């Protein structure tokens, strides 16, 4: 007797009601949680929300990875005893799943972050064009972005990302580039990443990390 369409949801529910698949599901959820955090961080939600998700992403990854790594041996040991074998086995499966899913989860979150900053670079084109027009008309780089308003641009825009809403402009002295535009985009408590643009669009090494070109911009991983 073939199953009816009405019985398919029930079959799926019974399938996922099994503790084995629930343990794998926990590992999957923890492993891909950084992707959710990255999506919220790069959204236009207020900084009080998106900023906390940026911090939560780093803390969750570190804590869950350590918990999964440190839980493997105790769970494996408790599996030797009949009274704790079932529960320990499920914990062990959840730990292994967390470690396995963390690899594609972190990789996916990096791609999401890269795409988000590429979109930010697109939104910044009018601001960069205003700075360059100011240079042509005034014969110098502006001292601050507010000098562009209102002749060259109506208002200094936001980045469109709630966690990192502001542009930082710096007029450079004794440098091959006359100015630099950047967005401070650190993750966690002790991270000072930067997304920055220079008019030459040439990006060399920076002390304390490595530089990843993103189109005409560059991302500094501290």
State the main characteristics.
alpha+beta
Topology (SSEs and partners):
Layout: H1 8-17, H2 19-31, H3 33-41, H4 47-78, H5 85-123, H6 125-138, E1 168-171, E2 179-184, E3 194-197, E4 210-214, E5 217-221
Antiparallel strand pairs: 1-2, 2-3, 3-5, 4-5
Q: Your description of this structure?
A:
- The chain has a 5-stranded antiparallel beta sheet with strand order 1-2-3-5-4.
- It is built from 6 helices and 5 strands, in the order ααααααβββββ.
- It has helices at 8-17, 19-31, 33-41, 47-78, 85-123, 125-138, and strands at 168-171, 179-184, 194-197, 210-214, 217-221.
- The protein is elongated and about 80 Å long.
- The longest helix has 39 residues, at 85-123.
- Residues 10-16 have low confidence and may be disordered.
- It has 222 residues and is an alpha+beta fold.
- Strand 1 (168-171) and strand 2 (179-184) form a beta hairpin.
- Helix 4 (47-78) runs antiparallel to helix 5 (85-123).
């Amino acid at each position: 007797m073939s199953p009816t369409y009405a019985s398919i949801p029930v079959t799926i529910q019974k399938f996922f009601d099994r503790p084995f698949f629930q343990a794998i599901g926990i590992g999957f959820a923890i492993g891909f949680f950084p992707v959710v955090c990255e999506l919220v961080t790069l959204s236009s939600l207020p900084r009080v929300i998106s900023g906390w998700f940026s911090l939560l992403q780093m803390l969750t990854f570190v804590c869950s990875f350590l918990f999964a790594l440190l839980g493997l041996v105790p769970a494996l040991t408790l599996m030797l005893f009949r009274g704790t074998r079932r529960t320990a086995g499920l914990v062990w499966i959840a730990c292994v799943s967390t470690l396995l899913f963390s690899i594609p989860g972190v990789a996916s979150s990096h791609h999401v972050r890269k795409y988000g900053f590429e979109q930010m670079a697109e939104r910044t084109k009018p601001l960069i064009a205003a700075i360059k027009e100011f240079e042509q008309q005034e014969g110098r780089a502006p001292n601050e972005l507010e000098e562009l308003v209102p002749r060259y641009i109506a208002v200094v825009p936001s980045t469109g990302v709630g966690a990192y809403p502001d542009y930082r402009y710096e007029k450079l002295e004794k440098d091959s580039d006359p100015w630099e535009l950047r967005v401070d985009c650190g993750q966690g408590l002790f991270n000072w990443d930067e997304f920055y643009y220079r008019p030459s669009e040439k990006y060399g090494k920076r002390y304390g990390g490595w530089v990843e070109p993103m189109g005409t911009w560059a991302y500094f991983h501290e």
